[in-house]
Amino acid sequence: MKKSILILVLFLISFKAFSQKISVEELLSKTEKSLDKIETLNYKTNRLVKNFSDKDTIYQEAICSIFIEPKDKIGMHYITNIVWDDEFLSQQIYNGVNGSQVNINKDKTLRNFEVLDDKKIKSIRGFGNARFLYFSFFNKNQRFTRFKNKNERENIDRMEVSDEVFEKTPVYVLSVFFKNHKDSDAYVNNGIDKYYIRKSDYLPIARSSYGEFQGMKEYEFVTIDYLGINTLKSTDFKPYTKIEEVNIEAIYEQNKSLFASDSFANKNNKPKEEFKQVSVDVDLSNKKFPFNDFNLSESKTIKLSDLKGKVVLLDFWYRSCFPCIKAMPELAKLQKEFENDLVVIGINDRDEQDQVADFLKYKKVNYSSTYKSELHISNSLKINAFPTTIIIDKNGAIIFMETGFNKEKIKKTIKDLIKQ
Asked: N or C: which end of the chain has fewer CB within 10 A?
């Protein structure tokens, strides 16, 4: 009996220790101190993400090594190994001075090799590989900036810490809830970030984020598996300077687990293109719009030739383009004001048919739009900035073509053309 009571007491003590409360400030402080001890790090990471404009969730894996260097232009030296679309391994190396990128096919043949110049290194955060370096954790200059930056903190509604068990590991979960801005087109709403901090050493082992924007949802979930802490040397981060130095077999063997048939990245849940978009050479010297038939998201077709006698406004847009979204209510007002003389048509070459239809319904607009199809109209016209507005007169001639949305200028042009 006494033994049973003793066991119960010990259990209650251990349970109390396990569930002991910790403040947000204390958790962040201890996590930063733990991260400060890292000089070099080797880890494997799993990532699943769905961006606002994507229809499907993408699964990715990577094996990375980093050397913390706060004075560096990137904040670290690194090696990233990532399998793209289960087709080829991409290894990128940067040592603070120069870099290299090697892409290897599944059959262990070299796909391509590139030495990264200083210009590319300075913009490295724009590279696909950089998303696996988790600057918000391992870069001392950018760590937890959302909690340190005054402007960022003003957007936070509240923060909470809870005790959980994540994949059999006791963790503190820091949940960050962001303020909603229901009446604004400029903010993400219902935003929640979660940080999973391992209790044993206060190291982050997972992170998630969620947000909603203009009826679209975006989320990301990341896990970090620590393979080695402070086990590397600065000399391990040595980029290739010429193709003869590349040891394909060694690179492949070190990272072959990324090609495993049962790996996180290869669940065959990646989005698949149903067709390949093509662009064509067009001639605008005669001021005639080179395309006549438009397939609309509501499964209708409209011909430009049938709109003779009306002014036509073509708005080039896509769903995650904030300036495009901001212009939509104004376009709807123009369509209503000049409903007998104006036809507004959205030209969307990025989003799929159901995505466009749902979005126009969400925005309650009174005009139609095209959707992603085989013909890439924007590329054919060499339009690469959005929104872009084209206005066509009653006889089918292009009168106005301008990047951005100048409400007053566009309205004046429409009025003048209607009077003609």
From this structure: N
